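Researcher: Please translate sequence to structure tokens.
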Amino acid sequence: MATVFQWSGKAPTGEIKSGEIVAATKEEVMSRLRQQNIIPTAISEKQKKALFSGLSLGGGRVNDKDIVVFTRQFSTMIDAGLPLVQALDILSTQVENKTFARVLGEIKVDVEGGSTFADSLKKHPKVFSELYVNMVAAGEAGGILDTILNRLANYIEKAMKLKKKVKGALVYPAVVTTIAVLVIAVIMVFVVPTFSKMFANFGATLPVPTLIVLGISQFVAGVGGLIVLGAVIVVIIAIIQFRKTEKGKYVIDRIMLKLPIFGILLLKVAVAKFTRTLGTLISSGVPILDGLDITAKTAGNKVIERSVIRLRAAVSEGKTIAEPLMQEKVFPPMVNHMIAVGEATGALDAMMSKIADFYDDEVDNAVNTLTSMMEPMLMVFLGGAVGFIVVAMYLPIFKLITIIK
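Model: Translation complete:
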């Protein structure tokens, strides 16, 4: 476990220096100081309270937006010729998120101690993904870290937009449907029973629609409603628990991909994510097998993940990407053919980027179409249900007025 150590020591010039280093042991601190030609005179463990002060002050978790802003600024500084440590020092003091500021401070200390930037990032897997670390490692090895950071920022921004579109497509109908069900439930539980008491004194036979609504109201307001509610809760909990297992994730993801409307949308999202991730990694100099491994882990869908793992195994045996991908029959044929063309022309990364851009637009169109379809359908459902209840409740009253006349 990492600990903050305070140190003081003598530099080659004879000057006494001091500072802090995040390390696992005192021996590691001494080793890092010697690498900097500093003779340590005192090393002591700082109170752990200081290490976690960012968390205790409510810094919150590091989100994608924090990573994008940091990556853009860091890329600009590196491109301008600022040393790595100085750039990290500046950004760690400017970041508003205290948790992220603490992480950047630890990375700066590690880089000062002689670690590469990628190795320093690897120590914080909850903040920097494997994709991020591998691309930075490729950038450092190729001397194009600023270019790689720009690509990373673009990739994360596009991934954020894609996630936002999908959330909008799934959340909107869910919210409207929930409100519609709640409105109908309130009417059935609180409004309809009032009419039921009034109709009990009529002594006449009630119309069929009225009897249907009264029967449903009695069921919902009574023990039947509690049974249904309990059953729904049990089913939801069971699905959540099943989803936590490896088999459950695969089964549910497979079902989701086969849904009539949402399945097509989710497949387009998967295609866009797969092609953009792999294309970005290949163009950044990450080896193809490592790229496929990272792409599988970040797929977000177990069906796609298993398909990419099998694809990686085939590529490791010397096959092209397109051939085994066609055999998987997960992605549309157009995607397979475009990847085959990209491999044949030696421009696979560029072709992957074009496919990703195309499917980003397809997702956008699918979300707009889905929203435009769901709005009138939900309104018709809510209006029809409420209208039927109102008419059913007033039919006996109209009948009574006719008899009185």
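Researcher: Any highlights?
Model: The first strand starts at residue 3 and ends at 10.
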